[in-house]
Write the structure tokens for this entry.
Amino acid sequence: MSIDVGLRVTELTDIRARRPEAVGEAWQQRRRRPLLGDDGRLLIVAADHPARGALGVRADKLAMASRTDLLRRLVVALERPGVDGVLATPDVLEDLLLLGALDGKIVIGSMNRGGLQGAVFELDDRFTAYRAADIAACGLDGGKMLTRIDLDDHGTVATLAASAAAVTELAGHGLMAMIEPFWSTHHDGRVTNLLDPDSVIKSVTVASGLGATSAYTWLKLPVVAELDRVMEATTLPTLLLGGDPTAAPEETYADWAKALTLPSVRGLVVGRALLFPPDGDVAAAVDHAATLVRGGAA
């Protein structure tokens, strides 16, 4: 049965104010599923951008500012067939949990949101959200960490050390560690992720070696040129990120379709491109992505 977010969202504040313990109770009661189904593929919807102050979609700098609107879009996406789960910070996941949208879904907790968009400390990606112990205690399925590498920024070494510790701790609980690495530069107050194949390859090799074991490590990588050569750099299972949805949807879908044929690529983690499509039809955008992930005709 479809969740009416408009009717239910007003209840969330009342629950949080009067009975905050309901969040913990709901995590313990949530129905879980195995990480992978029979086809070994995943389609995850991402919604951890707001916690880093990144609210813009295309020309609208505050597109993700309304929590009610964001929750409505997320619920539509999670109710579509072929969507395996969601990646978000505790606040968003707990709203979805209380709405009853996470039963039978994969839930990945976003861990480091300290590198706020546009800040002078943006590349100091401190762990300000979930810790590995929290992810295990809540019964989540894994944790995701943004790991940007800038050889001219002293914050990089702290990020690498924290990411390595998180990988080790998540593995100790038998949980997925999803690393999103970038080779980055910081110039005139703006961080740029280098998306040429060689830079992505370097980010992959550094990220793959983080932690005491890579047994539970997955990568989250951008779709770039020569992706087949990039994927030669690792044996780790990889999910492709959707990126900033500035290209025409048809071009984006074509890029995803080609990339999804590579053996190490196991699916997509997409946020704004699916939640805020140009035509506003979230269900249609999600259905198209699900078809691509599951290997059907687009």
Summary: The chain has a mean pLDDT of 93. The radius of gyration is 18 Å.
